[in-house]
Fold:
Amino acid sequence: MKIRSRLILIYGITIALLLLVGFFSLTSILNLGKAADELSELYAQSIRAEQLRWNTQRQINYSLDFILGETDAEEEFGNIQENTQALIDDLRANSKNAIEKDLIEALEATQYELVWLMNRFFQIDLRDPTVSNLLETRERLREIGDEVSDDVVTINRYYSQQQSEKLNAASGAGKTVAWVIGAVSALALLQFLALVILSQRWLVRPIGDLNRAAAAISSGDLDINIRFTGKNEWGELAESINKMAQSLKTPRNEVIPSSTTAILMGRMTLKYLK
Structure:
């Protein structure tokens, strides 16, 4: 194989490995960023659920105050309801799967029952002696508070589990990034060593052999024969130098007999003249 082809093959393999490492590195970084975003969203959802529980508990307290005769509690109940509904809408809008949606719907159903129950009381005069079941209503309000608390605990347990999974995914992505960085460093070191070794074998050593051969030829040693294994550029160059040495050697052998003949003829001519 030609040296040029070998170098192209080595650089092609190196580029392919770098692209592969770069792909895994980019994928790991994107997964790490995705896990971080999902963790942030889960944390925000958990905060919304806690705020919803707090708002519901405040609404229940105002409802009990209204039953006890504090009419201002109705207005406070309505003000909290606007924020509570906004929290429910945000929870639903940011839900990711059917399980989370079912948990949010359970919270919404309990909260809806609270609003429906209190809207009935807000429309009647509690001072009317005909109004009954106040004790049952107060008990139901407390039950609603407990149900909301249980629902929030359940949904936060779900969020906690999801956060653990995302943390594990982020940890795995971080380890992958570390492995990729290590692989890039090892690949760079191996590439450097390979270039040094192959340069020594393919370039430095053949150039040294050719330099010594050229020096021998220039000093008159035309019997030198350069040998390189493999059919590559160096082999072709060595063959050309060997042919050149042979072409220089052939005329020299022909000149030697001619010179000897001339000398003998000159001696015979001198003897004849004497």
